[in-house]
Design goal:
The complex is a heterotrimer of chains A (about 180), B (about 1000) and C (about 100).
Chain A lengths: L1 H8 L3 E4 L4 E7 L1 H11 L10 E4 L2 E7 L2 E6 L1 H15 L4 E5 L4 E7 L3 H6 L16 E6 L2 E9 L2 E7 L3 H14 L3
Chain B lengths: L13 E10 L2 E7 L3 H7 L4 E4 L6 E3 L11 E4 L7 E5 L10 E4 L13 H4 L8 H5 L6 H13 L14 E13 L3 H13 L3 E4 L16 E2 L2 E2 H14 L3 E4 L2 E7 L3 E7 L14 E13 L3 E3 L12 E3 H11 L6 E6 L3 H11 L3 E7 L7 H8 L4 E2 L2 E7 L6 E7 L5 E8 L2 E5 L2 E3 L2 H5 L4 E4 L4 E4 L6 E3 L9 H18 L11 E2 L25 E3 L4 E2 H9 L5 H8 L12 H12 L3 H4 L13 H5 L16 H6 L3 E5 L2 E6 L7 H14 L2 E4 L4 E6 L3 H8 L12 E7 L5 E11 L2 E6 L4 H15 L6 E4 L4 E7 L3 H5 L17 E7 L2 E7 L7 E7 L3 H12 L5 E2 L2 H10 L34 H4 L10 E8 L11 E2 L13 E9 L4 E9 L8 E6 L2 E8 L14
Parallel strand pairs in B: 1-7, 8-9, 8-15, 9-12, 15-28, 17-24, 18-19, 18-24, 19-20, 34-44
Antiparallel strand pairs in B: 1-2, 3-4, 5-6, 5-7, 10-11, 10-29, 13-14, 14-15, 16-25, 21-22, 22-23, 26-27, 30-31, 32-33, 34-40, 35-38, 35-39, 36-37, 37-38, 40-43, 41-42, 42-43, 45-48, 45-50, 46-47, 47-48, 49-50
Helix pairs in contact in B: 5-6, 5-11, 7-8, 8-9, 12-13, 12-14, 18-23
Chain C lengths: L2 E4 L3 E4 L4 E5 L13 H9 L7 E7 L7 E7 L5 E6 L9 H8 L1
Antiparallel strand pairs in C: 1-2, 3-4, 4-5, 5-6
Classes of the chains: A alpha+beta (about 180), B alpha+beta (about 1000), C alpha+beta (about 100).
Chain lengths: ~180, ~1000, ~100
Amino acid sequence: MSDVMTASQARFDVAAGPDLRRWVLQGRDAGLAAGAAAFGLSGVPDMLRTAQVAGGTAARLGPHELVFFAEPDRADAIYSALQAGLKDIPSSLVEISDRQVAIDISGPDVELVLSSLSPMDFNIRAFPVGMATRTLLAKADGMVWRTGPQSFRLEVWRSFVPYMTEYLQKVACDVRF
Amino acid sequence: MTKQYRIPGRGRVNTARRVTFTFDGREFQGYEGDTLASALLANGQHLMGRSFKYHRPRGVVSAGSDEPNALVAVGSGPALQTPNLRATQVEIHDGLVAISQNRFPCLKFDLGAVNTLAAPLLPAGFYYKTFMWPRSFWDKVYEPIIRASAGLGVAPTAPDPDQYAFRYEHCDVLVVGAGPAGLAAALAAGRAGARVIVADETAEAGGWLLSDTTSRIDGKTGAAWAREVVDELNAMPNVRLLTRCTAFNYGPHNMVALNERLTDHLAHPAVGQPKERLWQVRAKEVVLAAGALERPLVFDGNDRPGVMLATAARTYLNRYGVACGRRAIVVTADDAAYRVALDLKDAGVTVAAIADLRPAPDGALVAAAIRAGITVLPNTTIQRAHGLNRVCSVELAQLLPDGSVGKGHQWRADLVLMSGGFTPSVHMFSQSRGKLVFDEELGVYVPGQSAERERSAGACRGVYRLDRVLEDGARAGAEAAAATGFDGSAPQWQTGDLDEPGRGGFAGALPRRGKGLRAMAFVDYQNDVTAKDVKLAVREGFRSIEHIKRYTTTGMATDQGKSSNVNALGIASEALGRPVEKVGLTTFRPPFTPVTFGAFAGHAREFLFDPVRRTAADGWARDRGAVFEDVGLWQRARYFPINGEDMEAAVRRECLATRSAVGIFDASTLGKIEVVGPDAATFMNRMYVNGWTKLAVGRCRYGLLCRENGFVYDDGVVGRVAADRFHVTTTTGGAAGVLNMMEDYLQTEWPDLDVWLTSTSEEWSVIAVQGPLARKVLAPLVDGLDISAEALPHMSMAEGSICGVPMRLFRVSFTGELGFEVNVPSRHGRRIWDAIWAAGEPHGMTPYGTETMHVLRAEKGYIVVGQETDGTATPDDVGCGWAVSKVKKDFVGKRSLALPALKAPDRLQLVGLLTLDPSEVLEEGTQLVARPDEAVPMHKLGHVTSSYFSATLGHSIALAMVAGGRARMGETLYVPVEGRSIPVKVTNPVFYDVEGARLNV
Amino acid sequence: MLLIRCPYCGDRAEIEYANAGEAHIVRPADPMAVSDEEWAQYLYMRDNPKGLIAERWRHSHGCGRFFNAIRDTRTDRFVMTYEMGQPRPTIDSEAAAEAAR
């Protein structure tokens, strides 16, 4: 088994993603606008698009929903800014730092591997860098974010991580053939 | 011996690579590139199987996936055998083990063949007529007989050790079939720049071009042209050409399933290589280029080994270099068979005669055959083929002007080649729900209006001549690409030396002389349906072709009627006296050819079958030897046995320890929803039966959620974190459903509310600390938070920290004891669990699992949704009427609760039950009746929903739902079980600490 | 597997969605004011047309939003999808014929 894995790693790599803090912001247009501004963005990202600030990323996963990701050293500042910016605007800001876990996948086979898990089209024309969405990954709900031409970040709920990583590794073996 | 029927200089097999395999235990040799069928034919072996019903000896009929007879099992051992494979598609490799099917004890001598003698007793609908009465015979006599005598191959008995892969794919143009039309289409679409997938079920792209050695494209043979096109396609990054890959299902919205066989042809697959890969391809446009199938002729003995399709013999000759016999008789209704005769003659096979059903065949090929000295008998039919394990002679007879058949003559032959013309392969088109139309001129059904974004090209829509096929394919490819935004021109080629197949054809049973009472002329080889069976069905009153199909089973075998449908239609049409186009065609169903279960399972097996969800404390529980149970996808510790305890002993100990000292329980799997926004309380008021307006921040309430029909859907404790923020808990199994239901109301009915919902189920690990010593354990850990009875009374909550980790602490109890539920961010779950355990151990803390949790809550009469409730219980039914707000104007379910039926006094109501014998533990689900001596069927009053032995109380307890139960307190009811009735006393469902004193300490 | 257009996320495969029954069934503003019969109508009675149906779907494994769709029950072909709260659109005969094909 180990030689199989080594061979596959040349074309596909699974790694634990970074430890991040996360918040879900839901609200009407004003709420999202205020949240985006407090986060440091010039505007609310388009649907299924991400936008980045120093130490943080915002992903527009729903029409009324932004998910904020923050590096640990920027997290407190970002959270304070969000709270302050949203103070008087009806909205919901809920921490989900521990609900989900990031898995980074990369390599020339990365699109093929994802194609074994989800019926979405991962061709770069259909799923460009910077796009993020929730979808079904095999039988697990997950978020897929294209971070580069050959790299994606997946996020799944914490208890699905063993299933997800094992699935990815199994599929990585299969796509070589 | 092995070269007996091999023709030097013919075929595409690699004669430099000899391959050794076994068939029915006997060793054979073939060449690399052979199929099992071609290799066996090269060895003179036509007999490859026994038929399904009559166990007649059967030879190979075709050279492709339409093969109805030569079904084999491949592989050896209990796990590795794959049954029902077509020998025409099995590629041989060294060490291949194949065995024939439906024979006992051996292929040449089969006991079941006595069924042939009994054929008059086995007509259409035989099963329906014979295995009717007596009813007592159904299970014990008929079914075993049917099961033993029917069925095709034998299923493997051990788990499949092979790997199977799965992939979704997207493309602009999917081309099904890589014959001339498919290759032309793929080239046109590929050159235009579209993302193209081409799938062909065979090992080599080219289709009929690999069998046709006479036609020329741009001066090259068809095979050479195909090779060049394949090279060009393979060089295009936007094109993927898949061979050994069958398109078997055409799903809605252009999703086509492909089954790619990766290792079946390999003697030594690579380590870890999947055996098959299932593709689900979403195509913007589909080009169907599935080709056409030659039709067999229906005459007495048309199933004798050595009787086969004419073009199949050409394929065996030109693709595999195998002559299928030494002396051939050709019986045809189409010109194509003449080319087969010419090729065979050229290869040294004697063609004794060509019998043509047409009165005056006049094509160029006919003239060529006559020029070559072949005897051509126009207006001639075949009355019968003789021979048992191999055809030895046939009787040919003149068709008389009145339509009858004249005197016959015997002709010696070891090979009978038949051609009833061609049937376009419309299976995939039909699966796509496209409408078939009858083509008067061709006498067959061809694709009409499409239902999907799809077009057919070439022979599968009745276009047969090669130049037109190429043109049709190229145009289809270019149009498909253009429809997806890639414009390009259709390539063109010069063709030469073309044949003109498909000018004739015959559908139905051949005319015959005499009544033919014992004649067996097969329409559907695989299901052993004869022409007589179809006629009988009509005589017995079946008029619809769909009914005739089901009654006779014609077209219902694994080949889905590839070779039989049109002939069956022809026979039915004649018997019904209606033209074919008025009879209609039955639906083609997926799969196009059988697909293994392994391919469907794909990666989803063993650990990957379903996600296994584990909590933060899972490893701790496993280290302590906990026994787990599945709750939805979660694994939860059920009990923690020590020193070899069984569940009963462990649960007694865990219960007593929790009631007397303190227990620790992993409640992390509970669903959690954060309800946030200025309208949060309003929303909660509308969803839950309870009132929320007056719930103070920092307090909790037991929430009960009904569906709009008034029946209990879910429950859980809700804490008010802030004026505009609720921490809602749900049952483990209800988490997703409750959130969906809340979103449904919020988005559909009340979009004006400023409130939003976020699932936090996995944000929090939840550690329940329950028992009289719970506060003692926790107090030192909670970083100064005051958790005294005064500061944190029963049903309250506080935010704080534990061991430096942020915490939401709930003072709640599902045990009836002083209890806390510690919520911490999941990443810290294990660390805090360990810390609480370390602090609790000196106090005699005991871990308990879901089983003890159930006993403790049942002692308190707390319901479990889904156990006491079954989707028809109102809050009042389960004793929770107190939770229902009387002042709220509306909430989900309120209106339904006002319906008379939901207020009836004789509804099933929650009660407790006590057995007279304190050690008797009732079985959950057993029924309750009023009198033990009642006659069967007894009048049921209710049923037991929960039943346990209570170590705390020293006797068994049970909860039950009983009609008008609350008015029956003190009554004795009976639980009838095998051989006796157990008397039970109806009691209050709260068995322990009725006044709740232990909670408020 | 159907291909369904979420008004927010675009075309996605059917497995990302959950069907949520007939659309435009409005919950009575004051349920207690309606008769038992009217309430039963609201609760249980649904059309089962052979042809175009307006129904709700939820992009449950995607953005989570409910939306409405017009689908031909005979062919599973979608005419259009639209946001919650919008009235049922009128479908011209050409689009209806295309959906029925």
